[in-house]
Write a structure and sequence with these properties.
Layout: E1 3-9, H1 16-24, E2 32-38, H2 45-51, E3 58-61, H3 67-77, E4 82-85, E5 90-92, H4 97-107, E6 111-122, E7 125-133, E8 155-157, H5 158-164, H6 175-186, E9 190-202, H7 211-227, H8 236-249
Parallel strand pairs: 1-2, 1-4, 2-3, 6-9
Antiparallel strand pairs: 4-8, 5-9, 6-7, 6-8
Helix pairs in contact: 6-7
Organism: Chitinophaga cymbidii
Domain Glycosyltransferase 2-like: 4-144
Keywords: Transferase
């Protein structure tokens, strides 16, 4: 089963090499189409990518309209049956992640998406987990209860994107939330939860690195529900906050 892994990067010299290595060290890398979309970096990121050019199937370096525009470029170029996105400051948790994921997809053709858990770490201490996002199997009121699959852990069949479309590049923070809401809640594609850590992320992503970004992200979540003709529950954000706090408490 061919898997397309997309890494989006921009001025990621400090982290991109670890990300690339976590992909090419996968036990099933021979089945991987590795796509790297660079936003015309100027800090030496391209030099590091070129060092591993023999492992990269598709490399594009050009200006883009933001993170989600770059992701869309990768998806449009992907030829694998399964697509996963690993950003340039994230790592697969171990070298058997893709092997485990593909086995699940192969077990049931009706499964359109697979997701699991993720952890966060600080760059100065990669071995110390500062947040554990333990998800749960999907159920009818999953989104209403403030849940969402951890996007970095999500793998999707290409046919899903062919049917429902791509990320909205006009969203700056929460287009991944909107796409998952559209895919799972609106189109009702079957998803499977695997209770294992899929990805390790560096602490301080776009959605949480400033209060302004938090506000923008929450506004886009509200727009996501409206865009899909859904009613956002009144205490949604309270439930969402409670889930995040528990992820920190349970470390």
């Amino acid at each position: 089963m061919k898997v397309s892994i997309i890494t989006v990067c921009y001025n990621s010299k400090a982290t991109i090499e670890e990300t690339i290595c976590s992909v090419i060290e996968q036990t099933v890398f021979s089945q991987v189409e590795y796509i790297v979309i660079d936003g015309a970096s100027s800090d030496g990121t391209q030099d590091i990518i070129n060092k591993y050019r023999g492992f990269v199937s598709v490399f594009v370096s050009e200006r883009d309209k933001g993170l989600y525009d770059a992701m869309n470029k990768g998806i449009q170029r992907a030829t694998g049956e399964i697509i996963g996105i690993l950003n340039s400051d994230d790592l697969f948790n171990n070298n058997q992640v893709l092997e485990n994921i593909t086995q699940i997809f192969q077990s049931d053709n009706e499964i359109a998406g697979v997701y699991g858990n993720i952890t966060y770490f600080r760059s100065e201490n990669p071995n110390k987990v500062v947040r554990f996002w333990r998800s749960k199997p999907y159920y009818a009121t999953f989104f209403e209860d403030g849940n969402v699959p951890p996007h970095p852990s999500l793998f999707v069949r290409k046919r899903v994107y062919d049917e429902i479309g791509l990320y909205y590049p006009s969203f700056k923070i929460s287009s991944d939330y909107e796409l998952m809401l559209r895919m799972i809640k609106v189109y009702r594609f079957k998803v499977h939860f695997i209770d294992m850590v899929i990805v390790r992320m560096r602490w301080g992503g776009e959605s949480t690195k400033s209060l302004r970004n938090v506000v923008i992200g929450n506004k886009e979540i509200i727009q996501s529900w409206k865009r899909n003709g859904l009613n956002l529950p009144l205490i949604f954000f309270l439930k969402k906050l409670g889930i995040k706090l528990l992820q920190l408490v349970k470390l």
